[in-house]
Amino acid sequence: MPRFHCPVPLAEGDTLSLPAGAARHVQVLRMQPGDAITLFHGGLAAHLPAGQPRPSYAQGSFEAVITRMGRSEVEVRVGAQDDVVELPAPRVHLLSGVPANDRMDWLVEKAAELGVASIRPLMTERSVLRLKGERAEKKQAHWQAVAVSACEQSGRTRVPELHPVSTLAEGVQAADKAAMRWVLSLSEGSQPLTALLQAGMPEDVYLLSGPEGGLSKAEEALAIAQGFLPLSLGRHVLRAETAPLAVLACLMLR
Predict the structure, then answer these.
(1) Rg of the chain's alpha carbons, rounded to an integer?
(2) Is the peptide bond before 90 cis (omega within 30 degrees of 0)?
(3) Which residues pair with 123 in a beta bridge?
(4) Where are the beta strands (DSSP E) in 61-165?
(5) Which residues contact 188 (CB under 8 A, 6 or more apart)?
(6) What φ, ψ does residue 68 adopt, rounded to 5°?
(7) How far apart are alpha carbons 73 and 99 in whole angstroms?
(8) Three-state secondary-structure class, residue 127
(9) How far is CA 139 from CA 5, 54, 203, in A?
(10) Count of H helices and E strands in the chain?
(11) β-pairing, 36-40 with 61-69?
């Protein structure tokens, strides 16, 4: 059944018009009145008032039936809520140096499929792509849309939040000091991921990963000084867009 992100309050029995993005998607698929679809809110903080607790409609998916197709509008009747609720832990918050070309799109897509809770793109010393101002805002919106699409495809009911592009210093400062914080590192003495997993898993993990070429020594030292633990994935050197996904895949299987 086709799934659509619908960031508005959802409740059984309601009749509503789909947001523009979901409506366009329904029309592209040439769906008709009477067709069944699945809707999910996604729980994005951007769609909830500041300081307001996340209500129940943000927690799962709802069955729905298309009742009317207009030129640009799609009306649906909301049905029963799915009993399946996405497991909240461990919540992994990815701080990633932005890789070049379209590799960040791929990283965002796959990280969303693997259950990442949030992504903060970072400008680092070795970042090839430089973003600021309006260009950075457009990229943030684009990556958020990529994450939404990945959740529609994969069956996730929570959409990871794409934070604004920031510097590495801003990123590490924003990490919750009470959470587990890791920085992917090739430095000697870094803790292997297997050892950290055996030690138990906290509810929240902040994972810092560099762009092509990794973080500089100064950047890694800054992260460690802020409480990030150097993390090793073994003797193989993985690409910038592959390394954090390897960690997410291991955590997803726990």
Answers:
(1) 20
(2) yes
(3) 167
(4) 61-69, 74-81, 91-97, 118-123, 161-162
(5) none
(6) -155, 140
(7) 38
(8) coil
(9) 20, 27, 29
(10) 7, 13
(11) antiparallel
Q: Side chain identity at 111, as an amino acid letter?
A: A
- How does pLDDT run across 8-61, given as a tens digit for each residue? 888 899 999 999 989 999 999 999 999 999 999 888 644 444 444 444 444 689
Structure tokens at 45: 């903080």
Which tens digits make up the pLDDT trace of 226-245?
A: 999 999 998 888 998 999 99
Residue 57: DSSP 8-state: G
In the block, residue with structure tokens 């895949």: 249
Residue length of the chain: 254
Contacts of residue 45, defined as CB under 8 A and 6 or more positions apart, other chains included, come to: 161
What are 50's two structure tokens? 């500041």
d(CA 211, CA 99): 5
Q: Name the nearest CA neighbour of 38 among 50, 29, 47, 46.
A: 29
**Site of tokens 């193989």:** 236
3-class secondary structure, 223: helix
